[in-house]
Design goal:
Blueprint: E1 6-12, H1 23-38, E2 42-49, H2 51-62, E3 70-74, E4 90-97, H3 98-108, H4 112-127, H5 135-151
Parallel strand pairs: 1-2, 2-4
Antiparallel strand pairs: 3-4
Helix pairs in contact: 1-4, 1-5, 3-4, 4-5
């Protein structure tokens, strides 16, 4: 992997769930692999929360009254023109529910590390315009997710 493409701000409102893995290096490694693969650079913030906090965010911003696993708040969504100055683009915010990650890792029978990485990749791709609203876009997005996780050596 080449130099870091992203300036990543990380905050955790919960205890980091991966003992022996440092929150900053894990988060930056995953997100920079995404940025390299889809050829973007900029700033992104990541917030790790519990189900109660992501539930509130989901209700407030999406009108969905339940917790979810990951939320993405894109800053450049729908923007055609970028500023003329030489500042890194603020891509947006990713919010990950550590509670949901634990639950889904157990449900899917893979490691918590894999689930946390998957949620970061999924959220980052959403920040950059990828979606899964129809079969073709889902195939593209999920294929990219699998490719990025494979490149990182993170498998089920």
């Amino acid at each position: 992997m080449s130099a870091e493409r992203l300036d990543v701000a990380i905050d955790a409102h919960v205890d980091w769930p991966l003992p022996g893995t440092e929150i900053e290096s894990f988060t930056k490694r995953i997100l920079n692999a995404c940025a390299e693969r889809i050829d973007v650079a900029g700033e992104v913030s990541v917030l790790y929360v519990d189900d109660a906090e992501i539930h509130e965010l989901n209700r407030t911003y999406r009108n969905v009254d339940r917790p979810t696993d990951v939320l993405s708040f894109a800053m450049l969504e729908g923007e055609d023109d970028f500023p003329d100055f030489e500042a890194p683009a603020m891509l947006g915010d990713i919010v990950v529910s550590v509670d949901k990650a634990r639950e889904q890792a157990e449900e899917y029978g893979h490691s918590l590390e894999r689930e946390m990485a998957f949620l970061l990749v999924h959220g980052f791709l959403h920040l950059n315009g990828y979606d899964h609203q129809d079969e073709a876009s889902e195939r593209e997005m999920f294929g990219l997710q699998d490719e990025i996780l494979g490149t990182l050596g993170i498998t089920r």
